[in-house]
Each structure stands twice: as structure tokens, then as C-alpha cells.
Amino acid sequence: MMEIKRKMGIAHFARRIKHPRGLWVKMAFIVVLGLCFVFFWSFLSSYASSFNVQRESFDDIAEPVSSRTKPARNEVTESSKSHERSKVESGSKSKEGRHVGGSVHKHETKKKKEHVVVSHPHKKKDLPKPVVVVEEEAVVKEVQEQVEAETEESESNKEDGEDGTESDGNEGESDQNGDESSASVDEEVEEKKEEVEISKKRKRKGPVFDPKAEYSWRLCNTRSKHNYMPCIDNDGLIGRLQSYRHRERSCPKKPVMCLVPLPHDGYDPPVPWPESKSKILYKNVAHPKLAAYIKKHNWVNESGEYLTFPQNKTAFSGNVLQYLEFIQEMVPDIEWGKNVRIVLDIGCSESSFVAALLDKDVLTVSLGLKDDLVDLAQVALERGFPTFVSALASRRLPFPSGVFDIIHCAACRVHWHSHGGRLLLEMNRILRPNGYFILSIHPWCAAMTALTASICWNILAHKTEEASEMGVRIYQKPESNDIYELRRRKNPPLCKENENPDAAWYVPMKTCLYEIPSAIEQHGAEWPEEWPKRLETYPEWLTSKEKAVGDTDHWKAMVNKSYLTGLGIDWLHIRNVMDMTAIYGGFAASLVNQSVWVMNVVPVHSPDTLPFIYERGVIGIYHDWCEPFGTYPRSYDLLHADHLFSRLKNRCKQPASIVVEMDRLTRPGGWVVVRDKVEILEPLEDILRSLHWEIRMTYAQDKEGMLCAQKTLWRP
């Protein structure tokens, strides 16, 4: 009966439509159908958008401009006018490479803001309490990423153990795992780019620091305790169940606002330079694994309260001086301290190589690998040697292309030939044309021989010691592109023309060869002048020569008139120095006659001047100060920040975390010198006082000023 009624209703509706008045019914029916379709389509679209799509290649990742690319006509670059821009450019060309690595932060989902009120335990002023923005972490996503990364790493180590080779934790995975790792890195880069765009739209207004804020401090509760490195150590929610350190640089989602504790037995003023080359205070670098390491090696001894480093006992067979003489005899063009000035040492083992080169006026940067659980990199820093800590896996090192005169690897246990040779290709990227790669390895690997031949490295010398079977080879990178065209197999291929070789901040390694610069306006086309002449030489490719000269003259005058004599700093106890906002390296150049070394940090959002810094014979690195720096706590005797905060005011989630990072980097008794606007220095002084720093000097004229403060032993 119901079926008959339904059919009759449909027939009646059809007759109504045929009637002239049925036109309105037709239109209403069409509108209803359209609305239903729109609603159904929007539901499907929102559902589909909730899934993540994995990228298949890195080709569409935008990269910043390089000083290695030829300039385009009529192009105007605005980066020199804006220090607060965080942009990644692709395919554009510039004479001087204004940007290297846009500042990128890991994208966070499901963000929720809450207000946390903090109080000052020793307040001197009655100030209102601050409002600190805290963001809720995407816990499930973080756990998944850590589990996947550590699972891949443990599987790779297991495979290497079966093959009978010693793994360093960075290499040894199958090619399939390598592809998965690259894909995950690609997703993270994409997420960071999205975060940059979001941060641009939500720029804060007002002062950098809340002038009415009070701060209450607590100690960091981490597994690494007094050696905590926030972006390297694995201290997440399940960090204690995972490996000790991240596979790649991975910073906490919330700004670090806790203070790193002092070593268990306290911290004493370090042994001054140059005595620190031969001995350091053991308590300052005490570590359980270090104690076990000392018992097995004779190049370091425990002598009372000190660790001593005998000159006649090194990790090298024979004497390290003989090793350096052998290198120069085999390759006479390697004139230590003249033709060769800047060296990168991979692995940071026992530092005798670095110490010996210092006596020859060669500045060596040691790369402490993140798998160095003995913390030998911290020992090197305590001795007064330039060192930083980083992973060497799938992302580029934070250096521009073609800047190191020599790269040295002595038993550094790096699998250079794995994953299509991407690690060796990364060394090729940062090695200067005609530069040297010195490799001491045991035993020798046939795959390494094939790889070096495929990238046209010339073997200048080869020697194998009969007793240890340790092979020493000296390679040289080509000086022109002609030899690349003569290869029978174009593998690895040449990189695309629009790919920027200087882009290094959160940029994945490429398995391709960059063309060697040949035009006069490209950095790296010619070998620099001999040291020390190169310090005051301004190359043809530097378009802003007048600014560079002015920067050098300015800092030379400032350092001589005030820094060395007017700030109350005892420079006899200053060795490790960092310039947090280096531009042309003028501050470092003005200190070249002092017994110090300076790490020149070029912020990733600033004009890219790091190639010129290396060209003049001093060292540096790219960094984003919205994130912690890659080194151990208590690494530096002096931090210099020239208008750092005023340039970062619209970029970082919590600017006070930069002050916390400065506290982490500085040794007790160390100094910070900050030059900035008065409106920034006044609340900064209050923050430093809350950290119990001693304010040694403040100066203000008009709207600019300077603050000089010294760190104490206080911990909450």
C-alpha cells in the first residue's frame, strides 16, 4: 500500500512540473540539489586535507640567494635594509648572496595559549607580573617522530654490526632507510617554511622585553644534566627511553626557560691560555664515560685535580709534528699559516692536531659529532680550541660553500661512501676549489676510492704505515669545471643552476656536484691572499667594500679605545669569544693580535656575509638565535651582541629565552657586552640581575647604549 502511494506521489509531482507554474518548482529543486552537492564536497575536502602528503623530492624547496651565483641585471636586493626579514628565495641571483637559509621553525599543530604568572624570589622593585605565552606541544606527533627516527638508527647500527664495521651512528643504514630519512627531513623543512609564513603574519608590537616583567628561575631537569644541549640532547617526553641524542638537530617546541646546573663538584675558573693547552681542571668537564675513556688512552692523563695532555703522546702514530711535516713534504703548496689558514677537523678526537696547527698560525674548527658520548668536544673547548657540535647525517653543515682550505679526517669513523656519497659531497660543497681533503683511515675502503674518482678529486699523496696499516691520503678538489665534462659516467650529476650552494640552515644534503665558480663576481673563484695579508684584503666579488672597510675601522677603534681597557675585562682570562651578530667580521679582526679566537655568528635572517668572513681568514657559522646554539654549556668567556635583540624583536616567540641561552653559553666569571637601544637594555639589565649577574658598566647616549655584565656562580 505504501509503495502504491509513493508511486502516485511521484506521478503527481511530475504532472505539477509539466504545468506552467511548475517552473518555480524546477528551479527550487535544482537549488536544493546544488546546496547538497556543495555541502557534500566541502565535507570531503576538509577530511582529505587532514592527511599529510609525503614529498618525493627536494627540488621545489625554495632556497636563498647565493654569493656564488652570477648577478642578474637590474635586480634590487632589499635584505641589506631589513634585518628582520626571514625569507627563503629560490632561483634568484645576486652578486653578494644577501640571504643564506631563511629562519625556519618546526611547525606545531593544535596550539593553545595559556597565561603563566611567575614571580621573583629576590625582587628589588615592585613590578607587575609578566604574562608569558606558553604553547601546548603536539605530543603524539613528537612521540611518533622520535620512535621512527630512533628505530631507524638502531636498525642501521645492527646492520653495521653484522657486517663487521664500526658504526658512528650517522651512517650504515640501507639505502631505503636513507630515502625515508630524507623524506622526513623534507617534511620538516616544509613545516618550518609554513611556520615562517605564520610568524610573519603575527608580528608582535611593542618592546622586545616586557619592562614590567619579573622572572622566576628553575634548574633544567634533563638526562644530560650539567651538559645539556637543548637541540642535540634527546630530552623529550619519552627521551629517557630513546637514544641519548637526536639523529638530527631537533629543538624543543617551547623556548627553553630553565637554567643548566653546574657540574656535580662545582665549577672553578678555567686554566688560562696558553697553559690550558697542556692541562685543564678535571671537575669542569667531569663525565662518567670520560673517566673510562682516560684509562684506555695515553694522550690524556689524570693528574690530581687536572687532566694533562703530554705533547709527546698523541693518537697519531709517531709525533703530530712529524705528521704535519709529512703532509707539507708530500704537497709543498700546503704552506701552513700562509697558503693554508682555515681548516675543518672532523671528529674532534684528542685535539693534538688542532694544537699543533695553532703554533703554525692555522685556525682549525673542530666538528664534534653528536655521537661523541665521551664529550671530547667539551674537553677541546675547555682547552681553548674552536669547536662546535652537530649531527652529520642528512642536513648540511651550517657553513657556506667553498670556504675551508683543508678538511681533515683522522680515524673519524664516518662512512663517507654511504647514501650515494652525500657526506663526501657535502665536504666537496664546503671545500674551497683547489682545497685539500686529508683522510687517515684504517682499513682502506674500495668504495671510497671509486667515489673520490667520480667527483674528480686528485690523489696528491698516499702513504700506508706498515706497523698500523693506517693509510693517509691527500686529495685535491678541482679548480675548474672542465674535468667534470670529461667524466664517462655523469654520476653524481651536476646540481641544477638555480640551486644555491650557500643555503645551509635546515637544508638537506644534495647528492650532486656544484659547478666551480669561475666569474670574478663569484666567491671562491680565486684562492685568497696569504695570511695575514688576507685579513685586510677585500675581494672583487664583495660589492659593499666601503661598508666592510668602515666596519673594520669602526671596530678597530672601539676595541682599542674601550673594550681592551675601559670595560674592566681581564683579557688574560679571555680565550673563547663569540660575536653573536657578526657582519663583516670587523670585531674579530680587531682582536686578531689578542690571545683569543672568535666564533662569528651570522644570523640566518641577516645579509649573508659569512663567505667574506672566511675569505679574510677568520671563522664563523650560520645560526638562528630563536633556537639554542650547538655547543656545550659554559663554552665561552665572552659574548658580544651588537643590536642582536633589536633585529630579532619580531621573530622569536620568547626573546627572554635568548638571555637564558646566553647564560648557558657563558662560563661563570665570563662576560657579555651588549650594544643596543636603551629601551631594550633597561629591561635586559633587569633580566640579568634576576639571574644574579653582576652589572659592571652601563652607558647611554641619546637612544643608544651599552651594557657590560659578568656571570656569577649562582644557580636557583
TrEMBL record:
It comes from the Eukaryota. Pfam families: Methyltransf_29. InterPro entries: Put_SAM_MeTrfase, SAM-dependent_MTases_sf. SUPFAM superfamilies: S-adenosyl-L-methionine-dependent methyltransferases (SSF53335). The chain crosses the membrane at residues 23-44. It is an enzyme of class 2 (transferase). Its EC number is 2.1.1.-. Residues 107-126 have a biased composition (Basic residues). Gene3D superfamilies: Vaccinia Virus protein VP39 (3.40.50.150). Residues 62-131, 143-205 are annotated as: Disordered. Residues 72-99, 190-199 have a biased composition (Basic and acidic residues). Residues 145-178 have a biased composition (Acidic residues). It is found in: Endomembrane system; Membrane. Belongs to the methyltransferase superfamily. This is Methyltransferase.
